[in-house]
Design brief:
The protein is an alpha/beta fold and 291 residues long. The chain is 29% helix and 19% strand. It has two domains: 156 residues, D-Maltodextrin-Binding Protein, domain 2 (3-Layer(aba) Sandwich); 92 residues, 3-Layer(aba) Sandwich (D-Maltodextrin-Binding Protein, domain 2). Strand 2, helix 2 and strand 3 form a beta-alpha-beta unit.
């Protein structure tokens, strides 16, 4: 079980100031992660040897809108926000400078569909799962997220101190997410969770009180309570079944998978990845651990 996370004042100010119109769900339809990603020799991963989508360029995808703390000002190109910064750090490890990085929009739910991709890799809070890995490649993980229960402050669910206290709650989640798996496997509510097509629908249900609580990943929960639904609070966080690791997503069988994994592994070993997480996603969010 990971320790509670407390967000920095700087990040809090950024989240409150920067508006976003939708939440991106990071979960997957399976709770078991794929086998470890193949890693290449980073010294052989240079622009002249990489078969990228556009020659001499590295094309990175994410969804739109792109919101904090993963991106700032809905602008992936500015290098601000965790995933924007990680993308440029990967590019640098592969020998590309910022001017050689192009961004493209790829909707979250379309990213892990089978078939060819118009990008080299996608960073969009996408959980690595066995089911998705049958259709796309994933790099080594660059972040591990927990799950959080969010409820309106004046609701009965807000006073829960354990997952058992939520057994009879009407819980809302987005379809096709690890949050849904987490609810079913860790909370096992007495009635089926209420499933919504989009993250916006989840937020609306919480605002209107049509559900007692919602379950989302911890970083999204903090953003949701600080920006989208200030009348809500994080009830607590808990570990997702099997862990919820996020990886760069690539086309199935991509020749770049090993190199992207090698870049991420190098960033982790050097401490750069941890520094980026500390800067953009504090590891001490104000969310008590419940089990």
């Amino acid at each position: 079980m990971r320790s509670p996370r407390r967000w920095t004042t700087t990040l809090l100010s950024l989240l409150v100031i920067v508006a976003a119109t939708a939440l991106s769900a990071c979960g997957g339809s399976s709770n078991s992660s794929s086998s470890p990603a193949t890693t290449a020799d980073l010294s052989s991963c240079t622009p002249d040897k990489l078969d990228t989508h556009s020659s001499g360029k590295l094309t990175v995808a994410t969804d739109s809108p792109a919101y904090p703390p993963y991106f700032a000002s809905n602008d992936p190109t500015n290098g601000r926000g965790f995933e924007s910064a990680v993308a440029y750090a990967i590019a640098q490890k592969l020998g590309f400078d910022r001017s050689q990085v192009d961004w493209t929009v790829e909707p979250f739910n379309a990213s892990y569909a089978p078939g060819s991709k118009n990008f080299d890799f996608d960073l969009n809070e996408i959980s690595i799962t066995a089911a998705r890995s049958k259709q796309v490649d994933f790099s080594s993980p660059y972040y591990t997220a927990g799950q959080a229960v969010v409820a309106l402050k004046d609701s009965q669910a807000a006073s829960a101190t354990s997952l058992a206290d939520l057994k009879d709650a009407n819980i809302g989640v987005q379809i096709g997410t690890t949050s849904l798996d987490a609810v079913n496997e860790k909370i096992d509510p007495s009635s089926d969770p209420k499933v919504f097509d989009t993250s916006n629908d989840v937020v609306t249900a919480l605002k209107e009180g049509s559900v007692d609580a919602v379950v989302v990943d911890v970083p999204t929960a903090f953003y949701l309570t600080q920006v989208q639904v200030p009348a809500a609070a994080i009830v607590g966080q808990f570990a997702a079944p099997g862990g919820d690791q996020w990886g760069a997503l690539l086309q199935k069988g991509s020749s770049l998978t090993g190199c992207v994994s090698a870049a991420i592994d190098a960033l982790r070993q050097s401490g750069e990845l941890a520094a980026l997480e500390k800067k953009w996603i504090s590891d001490k969010a104000d969310a008590p651990v419940i089990d």
